[in-house]
Design goal:
Protein name: PucR-like helix-turn-helix protein
CATH topology of the largest domain: Alpha-Beta Plaits
Strand order of the largest sheet: 2-1-5-4-3
Strand content: 5-15%
Number of helices: 15
Pfam families: GGDEF_2, HTH_30
Mean pLDDT: 88
Number of domains: 3
Family: Belongs to the CdaR family.
Order of helices and strands: HEEHHEEEHHEHEEHEHHEHHHHHH
Organism: Actinomadura pelletieri DSM 43383
InterPro entries: CdaR-like_regulators, CdaR_GGDEF, PucR_C-HTH_dom, PucR_C-HTH_sf
Length: 400
């Protein structure tokens, strides 16, 4: 670059004036790097990108479908009928063979200028500067991310001295906001102990990046080997996380939230709770939805930590095994569970199941005969209630 002190904003603005186009510059993950000033009316996609500092999910999908990440020249993204967005030109920027970013602008509707030599020359000249600037930016971000990850892993380690030192670094360097309490959030694809595929890691990376970027306070987070974790200097807003997980492509994700801790060095305890909560959400979405909080788990705090994957029906108490073996077992088991959940109140059970109370009594009689169990005994009720919960978490209640 001949010693010139350039920055990406200058390069993009100069190129925009040469091409008479409003330009946006992205990195390879479609985070907004720079954009040119605009005299004309700003379109909705550009507005969203500038406000969120990131390409839209729909835009990322269309760019990938068009193969822009593999291209060595400009690619035209057709108009999007779903959103009404106009056609766009995506110009990949490469440093050698490696992709380092994209220039994007609205297609003018005529190919005349797009194919002109002066147009290509202007893009090529800007790309020669931008490829180095984006490369330097990427290296800087990787160094910063590595430092954050190192300190975060330190805070989550088993050694108290390491945790205290890492917590001090995170606070002193303002990698996390000052607070009276700190809370852990775990994100996983399925249960949080499963090894991540490349695709799952990308999804978690994308989700975590969005959460960190949109958080109203300074949050630190990363993707580990089997799950993602963030430490927040406040209580986690469960509704906001649920809304985020409802976005396209994130429906497979599950989240767990630990209880807050007064000291950052003690956030490892909240992290362990969040891991258990994420596992509960993965094992029983019907009860928890995509997000579970440690404070809501009750007995599941213990049960989800059992080796559920290795359990079989033979490990369940014999009365429940016998109920699972009969043809109308599912109806009987649902009735039993509802009855126990309602503190053995037959009338409340009938209301919840929308059946007559005599039907509940009939089913309870069948349950006791088939299961060879006396529900009048407190120990029998406790045994069946716990066994039903384990069978649900271990997914042993379906037909086999």
């Amino acid at each position: 670059m001949g010693g010139r002190q350039l920055n990406v904003d200058d390069v993009i603005q100069n190129l925009a004036e040469q091409l008479d186009r409003s330009l946006v510059l992205y990195d390879t993950e479609l985070n907004l790097v720079a954009f040119s000033a605009h005299d004309d009316d700003i379109d909705e996609v550009r507005r969203t990108v500038i406000l969120s500092r990131r390409g839209t999910a729909r835009g990322r999908e269309m760019i990938h479908q068009a193969g822009a990440h593999r291209a060595h020249g400009a690619v035209v993204i057709p108009p999007d009928e779903k959103t009404g967005a106009p056609a766009r030109v995506i110009v990949p920027i490469r440093r050698g063979e490696r992709l380092v970013g994209y220039i994007a602008y609205i297609h003018p509707g005529t190919p005349d200028d797009e194919g002109a030599d002066w147009h290509r020359d202007a893009l090529d000249a800007a790309a020669a500067d931008l490829k180095e600037l984006l490369h330097e930016r990427e290296l800087s971000r990787k160094r910063e991310l590595a430092h954050v990850n190192e300190q975060l892993k330190g805070v989550l380690s088993g050694d108290p001295e390491t945790r205290a030192e890492a917590a001090k670094v995170l606070r002193d360097t303002r990698m996390i906001g000052a607070s009276e309490s700190y809370t852990a959030l775990v994100l996983s694809v399925g249960t949080p102990e499963g090894e991540l595929s490349i695709e799952d890691r990308l999804v978690l990376n994308d989700c975590m990046a969005d959460l960190l970027r949109k958080s109203p306070s300074k949050v630190t987070g990363t993707v580990l080997d089997t799950h993602a974790v963030a430490i927040t200097p406040r209580r986690v807003n469960q509704e906001r996380i649920a809304e985020h997980l409802g976005a396209d492509g994130l429906s497979r994700l599950r989240a767990g939230i630990g209880d807050p801790r007064a000291e950052l060095a003690d956030a490892v305890e909240s992290y362990r709770e969040a891991l258990v909560a994420a596992r509960a959400a993965a094992l029983d979405e019907a009860t928890y939805g995509p997000i579970a909080k440690w404070s809501d788990l009750g007995l599941d705090r213990l049960l989800v930590q059992l080796p559920l994957a290795s359990l079989t029906r033979r490990d369940l108490p014999p009365p429940l095994q016998r109920l699972l073996a009969v043809a109308n077992g599912p109806d009987l088991i649902t009735t039993l569970e509802c009855y126990l959940d309602n503190a053995c109140d037959a009338q409340a059970t009938a209301r919840e199941l929308m059946v007559h109370r005599s039907t509940v009594y009939y089913r309870l009689d069948r349950i006791q005969k088939i299961g060879e169990i006396d529900l009048g005994r407190g120990s029998a009720r406790r045994e069946m209630h716990t066994a039903l919960r384990v069978a649900t978490l271990a997914r042993l209640r379906g037909t086999h």
